[in-house]
Every structure is written in structure tokens, then in C-alpha cells.
Amino acid sequence: MSQALPVSKKRKKEQPGTVINCGQNKYVIESLLGSGGMGDLYKVHLVKDKTRIYAMKTERISVNEAYKARLKVELNVFEAI
């Protein structure tokens, strides 16, 4: 069972309207969808096309190889959906 992070170590949540640069695209955060032990999940849309809605996961901690492997598994699941 996962434990809650101490208040001082909780991740800062992004606010609606925040623009995130990701590669060649820019996304605007619409809302927080949920939070878990590995990060936060946001509903976002492309800056240049508000009709393209996506889910974006953010990470706020440094990662080791085992953590990277877990993220790759998540990515494979998301791509299969």
C-alpha cells in the first residue's frame, strides 16, 4: 500500500491555463484528472487546436532505471487504448 507524501514533498499541481512545451507542440492544461504515486494526470489540449484533447502525465521526481521501466509499461498500455 502506498503512503502519502509528507506535505513538504507533495508535488506542485499545475494550474488550468498553464502552457506546457513538449517537443514541437505546446499544450494548455484544462484540468487535473487525478494523482498517483508516480505523477499527476491532466486533461490538456493543443494550443493551436482546442479540439484535440489529450491526457498528459507529469513527473516531479528523479527516476532510476526501475522507475523508467514502469513508465515504459504505462506508455505501452496507453498506446494500446
UniProtKB/TrEMBL annotation:
Q: Which InterPro entries match?
A: Kinase-like_dom_sf (IPR011009), Protein_kinase_ATP_BS (IPR017441)
Q: What is the scientific name of the source organism? A: Pristionchus entomophagus
Q: What top-level branch of life does the organism fall under?
A: Eukaryota
Molecular function terms from GO: ATP binding
Q: For binding ATP, which residues are annotated in this chain's numbering?
A: 57
| Keywords tagged on the record | ATP-binding, Nucleotide-binding
Matching PROSITE patterns, A to Z?
PROTEIN_KINASE_ATP
| Protein name according to UniProt | Protein kinase
